[in-house]
Amino acid sequence: MATTPRTTKAAPSAPRDLPPLPADPASVDTTHARALSKTLFARLDSLEEGTAEFSYVRNSLVELNLALVRFAVGRTGVRGQSYEDVVQVGTIGLIKAINRFDPGRGVEFPTFALPTVLGEIKRYFRDSTWAVRVPRRLQELRIDLTRASAHLEQTRGHAPTVPELAAHLGLSEEEIIEGLVAANGYRASSLEHPNDTGDPEETLSGHIGFADPGLEKVEDLQTLQPLVAALPARERRILALRYGADMTQSAIGEELGISQMHVSRILSRTLSRLRAALVHGR
């Protein structure tokens, strides 16, 4: 039985009117890379997109300018992601910059391309990283939960419950709940985001934080503590019996051997003094 010989698609060769590229474009120094890039951009402008020559020239420009991508990654960092993944994302930005670059405007390519590369990397961080750092197993569980939720909702016609997700993924309900809670850390919402009431003027900040009325009482008590400690012993005892033991003025008078009217005058004088000191202290 005759066999058909296997054929391999040959890589596009360099156009004859271009200087040969170095075997390792990454080893080319910056000055040489810029000069060669200018020649390649001038040639790219005359080629039809989709042709083998166009692909060769554009790929050569990418290889010559990968140092720009590595420089951009060095500026942004990898933020817990794989270095190779971030470089790949930056390379996409580099390709976009090559496609849009117009050498006739007199701008150096690195100056033009760097914002595009940085923007692509920052967009990747914004769309693909977590607002709150969680363990990798929970990051992977979030992906599984997203896929499982979409599948179950399509097949069953309703949003899946925790038991349904647990059965589908072969996990315990506790693990599902942990994954759902952790998924809340994937995005952070602004406090100025409109609330679900339909009123564009009503934001989340108006429903999350509020002034606790008990805070002012705590401040008053802390301010009063040294003022009460400075009172004469009898006045401190009368305050303790009246407001600590909740005794009536008559009962306090009997306890101390004085009249109810005397107790009333002492309380009134003491409270006025404390009130004045408290207001002055504010």
Number of domains: 3
Helix content: 55-70%
Terminal CA distance: 103 Å
Total number of strands: 0
From the coordinates shown, what is the CATH architecture of the largest domain? Up-down Bundle
Secondary structural class: mainly alpha
Q: What do we call the CATH topology of the largest domain? A: Four Helix Bundle (Hemerythrin (Met), subunit A)
Let me know the average pLDDT. Answer: 80
Classify the beta-strand content into a percent band. Answer: under 5%
CATH class of the largest domain: Mainly Alpha
The main pleated sheet reads as: none
- What shape does the CA trace take? elongated
Rg result: 37 Å
- The succession of helices and strands, N to C, reads HHHHHHHHHHHHH
Q: Unreliable stretches, pLDDT < 50, 5 or more residues?
A: 1-12
Q: Total number of helical segments?
A: 13
Pfam family, one: Sigma70_r3
Region (Disordered): 1-28
Organism: Streptomyces antnestii
Protein name: SigB/SigF/SigG family RNA polymerase sigma factor
What structural keywords apply?
282 residues; Arc Repressor Mutant, subunit A; 0% strand
Structural features, described:
The protein is mainly α and 282 residues long. The protein folds into 3 domains: 25-128, Four Helix Bundle (Hemerythrin (Met), subunit A), CATH 1.20.120; 131-189, Winged helix-like DNA-binding domain superfamily/Winged helix DNA-binding domain (Arc Repressor Mutant, subunit A), CATH 1.10.10.10; 216-281, Orthogonal Bundle (Arc Repressor Mutant, subunit A). Helix content is 64%, strand content 0%. It contains 13 helices and no strands. It has helices at 30-44, 52-64, 66-76, 83-100, 109-128, 136-156, 162-169, 173-183, 205-208, 213-229, 233-244, 249-256, 260-281. Helix 3 packs across helix 4 (83-100) and helix 6 crosses helix 8 (173-183). It is elongated. It starts with 29 loop residues before the first helix and ends with a helix.
